[in-house]
C-alpha cells in the first residue's frame, strides 16, 4: 500500500513527496481522480454486497440501467438536449458499441472475480490494466508516458504485495 501511495505522488511530480501531494490538491483533474477512486471503492463494496446473493450479470444490467438513467437526467438538468445524445449515437455508434462491450465484459468479469479473490484483492489487481491503458494511450492518443511508467510499476508492485 505504501508503494501505491508513493506511486500516486507521480501524478503531479514535485521536488519531494510533500510538494507532489500539494500539487495534487491544487489540480482539479487530480482531485477529480481521487474523488472518482473513493466513489469507485465505495461502489465496489456495494457491488460485492449485492452480488453475494444476485447474479453478477443481472446486477450488471441493473446497475448500468441506473447509471445510464442518472447520467441522462443529470445531463438534461445541466442543459444538454436529448438531440445531443441522439446525434452522438448516430455519429459515434461503432465506438459506443465497442466501448460498451469492453466496459460491460470487464465489469462482469470483475464481479465474478470477487467470488474467487474477494474485493480487497480483485479490485486492486484489476487496476493492472494501467499498463495496457498506458500502452494504448501512447500509441493511439500520442500521450507522453515518461515517469508515469515508474508510477505504474510502483502501483503494480503494491498490488502484488496486496495479493
From TrEMBL:
Top-rank lineage group of the source organism: Bacteria
The EamA domain covers 28-162
Q: Which residues cross the membrane?
A: 29-46, 58-77, 93-110, 116-136, 145-162
Give the UniProt keywords, A-Z: Membrane, Transmembrane, Transmembrane helix
Any single GO CC term annotated in Swiss-Prot or TrEMBL for this entry: membrane
Looking up InterPro entries in the UniProt record yields:
EamA_dom, EmrE-like
Report what the protein is called: EamA/RhaT family transporter
State the organism of origin. Answer: Fervidobacterium pennivorans
Amino acid at each position: 500500500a505504501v508503494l501505491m501511495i508513493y506511486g500516486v505522488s507521480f501524478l503531479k511530480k514535485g521536488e519531494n513527496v510533500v510538494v507532489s501531494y500539494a500539487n495534487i490538491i491544487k489540480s482539479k483533474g487530480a482531485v477529480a481522480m481521487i474523488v472518482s477512486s473513493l466513489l469507485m471503492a465505495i461502489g465496489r463494496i456495494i457491488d460485492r454486497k449485492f452480488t453475494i446473493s444476485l447474479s453478477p450479470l443481472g446486477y450488471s444490467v441493473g446497475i448500468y440501467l441506473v447509471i445510464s438513467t442518472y447520467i441522462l437526467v443529470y445531463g438534461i438538468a445541466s442543459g444538454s438536449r436529448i438531440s445531443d445524445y441522439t446525434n452522438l449515437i448516430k455519429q459515434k455508434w461503432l465506438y459506443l458499441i465497442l466501448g460498451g462491450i469492453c466496459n460491460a465484459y470487464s465489469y462482469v468479469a470483475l464481479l465474478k472475480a470477487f467470488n474467487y479473490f474477494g474485493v480487497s484483492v480483485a479490485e486492486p489487481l484489476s487496476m493492472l490494466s494501467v499498463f495496457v491503458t498506458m500502452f494504448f494511450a501512447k500509441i493511439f492518443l500520442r500521450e507522453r508516458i515518461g515517469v508515469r511508467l515508474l508510477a505504474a510499476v510502483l502501483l503494480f508492485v503494491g498490488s502484488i504485495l496486496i495479493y
